[in-house]
Amino acid sequence: MIDELIFFLTKYIADWGYLIAFLASLLENSIFLGLFVPGEIITLLSGFYAGQEILFYPLVLIIILTSSAIGDNIGFWIGRKFGKKWLKKVGPKIGQKTKKIERAEIFWDKQGEKAIIAGRFMAFARTFVPFFAGSSKIKYRKFFLLNLAGATVHSVTMVTLGYHFGKSWEAISAAFGTLGVLLLAIFIVSAYKYIVKRKVEKK
């Protein structure tokens, strides 16, 4: 079933893959749509199709990195202009749960500037940390450099993981079965995020 789905999507990915990757990553990292767009899944799939030689790996990497950084900068400047109170007032009206906003705020208050990098690997934080950074007194140049570093690590990790799965898909699928491969991929990503989260919480 999964093999048939991959084959079905291939013709669309060849024509629209780069645009889909750009928009998904941009919107995921923007303040309003970050919790509704499966940008990280699409990032993995973009890497997967690069491994299948349908997309070009270096170009996918550049697109994901650039679009995620742009999305973060949009969030930063919205935060700089409107502030925390505005987000807490408007957020719930557009589907952003108050608990998630508060969770991201606590994460930012606890981790400070480190959250800009570490938050890349946590969906709730990746969406809101740039906003809270913008509403704080952090200088834009510092945010830009830290965000670029975090976006680079995250993009390279996710795209490369997807790439290696795509490159070895036939061999791995034959050895473990399609379902086994998907479960392994989910386990690897989840374990990686858990390790990052634990390290951050200990600091």
Strand content: under 5%
Global Rg: 18 Å
| Helix count, DSSP H or I runs of 4 or more residues | 10
Q: Based on DSSP secondary structure assignment, what is the total number of beta strands?
A: 0
Overall pLDDT: 79
List low-pLDDT spans. none
Q: How many structural domains can be distinguished in the coordinates?
A: 1
Provide structural commentary.
By secondary structure, the chain is mainly alpha-helical. It has one domain (2-202). 81% of the residues lie in helices and 0% in strands. The protein has ten helices and no strands. The protein has helices at residues 2-28, 39-51, 57-82, 84-90, 98-111, 115-118, 123-135, 140-167, 169-176, 178-202. Helix 2 packs across helix 8 (140-167). The N and C termini lie far apart (44 Å). The relative contact order is 0.14. The model has no long low-confidence stretch (mean pLDDT 79).
